[in-house]
Automatic annotation (TrEMBL):
Coiled-coil spans in chain: none
Ranges that cross the membrane: 37-57, 77-102, 133-159, 179-202, 214-232, 264-284
Transcription regulation recorded as keyword: no
KW Membrane (keyword) present: yes
PANTHER family assigned: INTEGRAL MEMBRANE PROTEIN-RELATED (PTHR37305), MEMBRANE PROTEIN (PTHR37305:SF1)
Descriptive protein name: ABC transporter permease
Keywords: Membrane, Transmembrane, Transmembrane helix
Amino acid sequence: MSAVEVAARPATGGVGVPFRFLRSELSLIARRRRNQAGLAVLAAVPIVIAIAVKVASPTSAGGGEGAPQFLSSISGNGLFVALAALALEIQLFLPIAVAALAGDAVAGEANVGTLRYLLTVPVHRTRLLAVKYAGIVAGAFIATATVAGTGLVAGLVLFGGGDVTLLSGTTIGMGEGLLRLLAICLYLTACLAALGAVGLFVSTLTEQPMGATIAIVMVNMLSWILGVIPQIDWLHPYLLTHWWENFGDLLRDPVAWDPVRHGLLSAAAYIVIFLSAAWARFGARDVTS
């Protein structure tokens, strides 16, 4: 059942209507071939990493200068395949996945001509934005979990598991290591949810989903580029992506909570600001498509 068909059903059942709408949105996201292809690409990266480290010589397995800090630990514990894959994909591949979802959220509906019908069924604009954003956040978590899960399986198959040596040198059990991996996935989902909020706002500005997606990716890349320019280091803490790579602090004992807390607060600020902007823009928008 499409989102339009769900919205067109009588509003009986009260609270059940938004949940039916959300289920329809999630189903629509899952059925899109481009999203399925994107997940396949995300899942392929940790597999390639695991195989590359497995066949590499011991002297090159560490990855050389500038390699992610987790890469050299893969041969000792397969869990680090998931962490290395997340470190590599968080800069571009995962943001592209979120950008595709966000760009399609409103602009995609306008492009295929269903947005106007959705709003005349009627579906309240605030509810529509909330459902669209919930779909983006769910997609961000699924993408992150796909990378982590595939990396974990590939790593355990090729390298095995066992105790996990943290970045601080402390050793913990595999069970606690898996919990920390889950915490990292949730942290990165929160970071990507901030990008999703920016993307939802951009999606309300146009009726071309591809244009919206490209704009969101450019915002992401601009943030990364500005973050490596030392002359504007005063700006770095306010950049969208500045705190994303601090997920490694969840692998210390004790956990370095300050960078993680700052990252979550930064994500929350972006979410509040850009969801408010999306609501203001969409609420006043004259929908003709």
